[in-house]
Design brief:
It is a single chain. Helix 1 links the parallel strand 1 and strand 2. This protein has a 7-stranded parallel beta sheet, with helices on both faces. About 40% of the residues are buried. The protein has 7 helices and 7 strands. The chain has about 230 residues and is an alpha/beta fold. The longest helix has 27 residues. The radius of gyration is 17 Å and the shape is globular.
């Protein structure tokens, strides 16, 4: 299988890439940070000699970047089996009164518009899959409940939850499954920035989310189509 993972340079995205490599999938890893992305790709290549890994620097909030990314995938591979939308953004807790429109839009672009663009451009390639084509969107438990101080992040993740549900129905005729995963507090670099005093060993590790994603891209996961899956300790 050929899997494309966004936000793959760190955190949950990198953990998902490693887990899919364990499954034996060929990987296309995308992120804005070229150095970190190359490091993850090299690590996977070194530990999985039979897995083909491509690292593509891409801003998934930029339409032309996304179009070029997927056009390249089509040219090199002819199709795509799995898309994991994991790229995202958050800032420390900020009240609505202190939140600028610019930051609000940046958060929505990173968490929602990126998934829209990646999904739209991936659909023609996923339709060519000889496997069971699957999209997995990484949302957050913040998108399923009220989060004072996190209005932009929570609203953007709630939008991603609904977008996932809608795509699940819209893409059924094309055999494309769409799953949405909503992790709780996870020990990532981003989480350490948001909660610097928190002990990362006391919260969920990125590998727990990655293991679930590995299941969701398997044939067995067809029975849970159309659900938002909360993952938390």
């Amino acid at each position: 299988m050929i899997a494309l993972v966004t936000g793959a340079s760190r955190g949950i995205g990198a953990a998902i890439a490693r887990e899919l490599a364990n499954k034996g999938d060929s990987l296309i890893l995308a992120a804005r940070s070229a150095a970190e992305l190359e490091s993850v790709a090299a690590e996977i290549s070194d530990s999985h000699e039979d897995v083909v890994v491509e690292a593509v620097t891409c801003d998934v909030t930029n339409e032309s970047d996304v179009v070029n990314l997927l056009a390249g995938v089509g040219e090199r591979h002819g199709g795509l089996d799995v898309l994991v939308n994991c790229a995202g953004m958050a800032i420390p807790a900020t009240s609505v009164q202190e939140l600028s429109l610019e930051i609000w839009q940046q958060i929505f672009d990173a968490n929602m518009s990126s998934a829209f663009l990646m999904t739209r451009e991936s659909i023609p390639l996923l339709k060519r899959s000889k496997e069971r084509p699957t999209i997995v969107n990484i949302a957050s438990t913040a998108g399923t409940s009220a989060r004072p101080g996190w209005s932009a992040y929570a609203a953007s993740k709630a939008a991603l939850v609904n977008f996932s549900n809608t795509m699940g129905e819209e893409l059924k005729p094309d055999r494309i499954r769409v799953h949405c995963v909503a992790p709780g507090r996870t020990a990532t670099e981003l989480r350490r920035t948001l909660a610097p005093d928190e002990d990362p060993s006391t919260i969920m590790q990125p590998e727990a989310v990655a293991e679930l994603v590995r299941f969701l891209v398997s044939e067995a996961a067809g029975v849970i189509q159309g659900q938002t899956i909360l993952v938390r300790q």
